[in-house]
Amino acid sequence: MEKAKWIFLAFLAMQLLSSFSQEPDTSRWLSIDCGADGLPFDDDLIIWDTDDGYIQSGLNELVRTKTSRNELNTLRAFPDKAVEHCYNVSAVTQTIRYIIRLGFYYGNYDGLSKPPRFDLFINHVKWTTVDTSINNGLPFYEEIIYQNEKSGSFKICLVQIKDGGVPLINSIETMVVFDELYPEMDTSATYSLVTRTNLGGPEVRYHIDTDEMYNRIWSKDATPYTRVTGFPDFNTYENNPPITILEDAIVANGSDPITLIVNLPQSTQQSAYIVLYLTNLGNPFDSNQTTTLKFEINSQDQGTVNSTGNGKTTVVAKYPVTVSGPTINITLSLADEFSLPPMISAMEVFTKWDTGPSKSTAAAEFFSFAYSLILLCMLVLVSAGPDTSRWQSIDCGSERSWEDRLLTWRSDYDYSQTGWNKLVGTNTTRDEFNTLRAFPNGSKDDCYNVPIDADMVRYIIRVGFYYGNYDGLSKPPTFDLFINNKKWTTINTSLNEGEPFYEEIIYPNKGSEFFKICLVQIQDGGIPFINSIETVGIFHTLYYEMDTNATYNLVTRINFGGPEVRYHPLTDERFNRIWSKGYTTYANVSGLPTIYAATSSNYPPESVMADAIESNASDPITLTIDLPQFTPQSAFIVLYIPQLVYTNKPNQTRSLKIEIDGKDQGTADTIGYNENTVVTKYPVTVSGPTINITLSRVNESSLPPMIAAMEVFTKLDMNVSAAAPEYFSFACSLILLFMLLSVA
Questions:
Q1: CA–CA gap between residue 465 and residue 493 (Å, rounded)
Q2: What is the pLDDT of residue 706?
Q3: What is the CATH number of the domain that holds 561?
Q4: Which domain holds residue 225?
Q5: Does 146 share its domain with 256?
Q6: Among 224, 448, 468, 695, which one is least packed by beta carbons within 10 Å?
Q7: Is the separation of the CB atoms in 419 and 555 below 8 Å?
Q8: From CA 278, how far away is CA 295, in angstroms rounded?
Q9: Stretch among 599-603, 649-653, 673-677 having the lowest mean pLDDT
Q10: pLDDT over threshold 70, residue 741
């Protein structure tokens, strides 16, 4: 018997090692502590972000009666009577399911002892009416399984109702789920969680000591049945129930049935999804133990269930089951007199929404007549807003996420697993440049994995660098930059007189779901670092003359005659490009470009086309561009030529001769006042150290040369292939195999 005991313990140890070798993919989890003022905090190895980067309205408040959950002790309240207050919560830009969980706890934060009621919406569809007085005033959650349709974000709104009081929210959590979870569900439908209960043990959440893979919460339930504890077999079962809930169960007395009562939030007829986790925790050495149970829901026969011995778990999913409130009654009873009494570890119940995640007429109620007029004016001034759902902005080295010009800058915690956060010694006006991540260890894993939309064929990728003497050594480093295992360039951070600078490319995506951007030390180069990463999905209509399978390096993008132009809610820059201020000796000219400036080739923003430089009389305009490489290259050059000077003289024309490095490139004519001409030259063979572009007046032109902006790219010799994720380490596999063999 003693020998059998040790064999059994060794078996358990091996199964436990196997079970905990799997780690959840927390990179696809987002946890937001609504109303928090401080920095993000770590709880159970989950980073809780503050919510100021996700919403612009509301007030931060503290509850008066605290709970053991830090994220529920703060809240954001919305006292102003605006129609809606919405969170824009980032999501991956692909069709995939999410668990979305919102936490609510009034906690008498306002001292009025009047818990509010309000409506909750997601993407303009009503989710539910939240009544914060339920659950005896204690914290509670609203949770759904929701399919994201490549939108890149969720819009979660809290809406006041008549006499309902002030809406509030304490927490928002989102977790990506994969196809193996709840496989019987319709993946295009939305399901509300009614209950997820650990019947025989305490509440179970994700923690380093548990194997909960999806950040689910298994609530404790008080039942009149006997609690038993045993040794589950540590196998992986449908829906990946954690071992910690399978090692406890409730058991009926003798031949008595187990009846579980589930309260439904709605009394109308609904379609339910019910999952039971039946673990046999009897004698693990008796392989002949079996239990055959009769399964009923609201007295309707659902068939029988067989549960075998040896600590095995049987997962029973019933869907669809038509139910009506106020309760569901689930009964497990003996099917024959020879079976062991009923035993169950856990249960989940969902109800299916009768509306999918499509727009509803309720959304129309969110817009007042005045607001519609404002939108109309904005549409007239800016013909179409940018699709920012395809933009990503990552602030490397930042402790928290934040928002600037309606752009959400995300902390880089979820994108890189190595390196150290640092602050620059000399700040700049750009917040994202005042932090950086440095990589002193020179690891091959000094990389960022940046998720993207696999359906987008091209991306603008911009990476920012600013040394700022962060280490106090006054030694700006030099290092190599790679993308998807191909060398992009060598970064010399002493360039640009020590000021911030960018490296930007237009990069083709061949069905990959991420970009891998790596920083690699070179001999005597110093410690690599990075300040920012930005990606923007672009369409074929932008720079359509480019080869869509090639990579192009941005040499310069200049706004002549005006200031630097970036994306801003009041500009019409649609692709988050940066038009740098150009310094020349020519006269600046301002005017009113056509209202359709942003519909010209490559969509130049109106604020760029409103300013230009003009030469004197018959003088040419000569533009000199420094090239980063001196070898022959293929250049893509775009000139933006407006006509900003009005004249009532007949036969006034502006015709330009274009030369690049002394070679004739033809002529360009401006059509008339308030019109734009976009000239693209590609391919143009150039060699460093400079490109010289000359615009001169042709003989028949009565007006001198004028230009508003210019872009120059060079084609990179980089063969692009889809990057394969490195999911497995060979060394780690060998170690795991050795451990299993040793235990065996």
A1: 7
A2: 92
A3: 2.60.120.430
A4: 194-364
A5: no
A6: 224
A7: no
A8: 12
A9: 649-653
A10: no
Total domains, the chain: 4
Please indicate, yes or no, whether residues 478 and 585 belong to a single structural domain of this protein: no
Which of 77-86, 253-262, 278-287, 464-473 bottoms out in mean pLDDT, i.e. has the lowest? 278-287
448: its two tokens? 């960022």
**Domain co-membership, 496 together with 583:** no
Say if residue 405's pLDDT is above 70.
Answer: no
CA distance 333 to 327: 19
Q: Rounded to whole angstroms, how far apart are CA atoms 742 and 744?
A: 5
By C-alpha distance, which of 560, 656, 653 is closest to 613? 560
Do 101 and 243 lie in one domain? The reply is: no
Does 568 lie in the same domain as 508?
no
Q: Do 179 and 340 form a contact (C-beta atoms < 8 A)?
A: no
Q: Strand 580-582 vs strand 551-560: parallel, antiparallel, or unpaired?
A: parallel
Question: Alpha carbon of 391 to those of 142, 451, 575: distances in Å?
Answer: 29, 11, 8
> H helices of 93-196, where?
none
Report the alpha-carbon angle 632-634-637, nearest 5. 125
In 124-269, the DSSP E strands lie at 125-131, 140-149, 153-160, 168-169, 171-177, 191-198, 219-220, 226-229, 248-251, 258-263
The percentage of the chain sitting over the pLDDT mark of 70, rounded to a whole number, equals: 83
Which residues, other chains included, contact 374 with Cβ-Cβ below 8 Å and sequence gap of 6+?
none
**Residue 303 and residue 221 in one domain:** yes
**Same domain, yes or no: 507 and 573:** no
Residue 635 falls inside a structural domain? yes
Q: Where is pLDDT greater, at 92 or 374? A: 92
CA–CA separation, 661 vs 679, rounded Å?
A: 17
Structure confidence at residue 651 (pLDDT): 60
- Listed in sequence order, the residues at least 6 apart from 123 whose beta carbon sits closer than 8 Å to its beta carbon are 151, 154, 155, 357, 359
One domain for residues 215 and 346: yes
At position 505, the amino acid (one-letter code) is I
Residue 669 covered by a domain: yes
pTM for this entry: 0.50
Q: Is residue 91 part of a domain?
A: yes
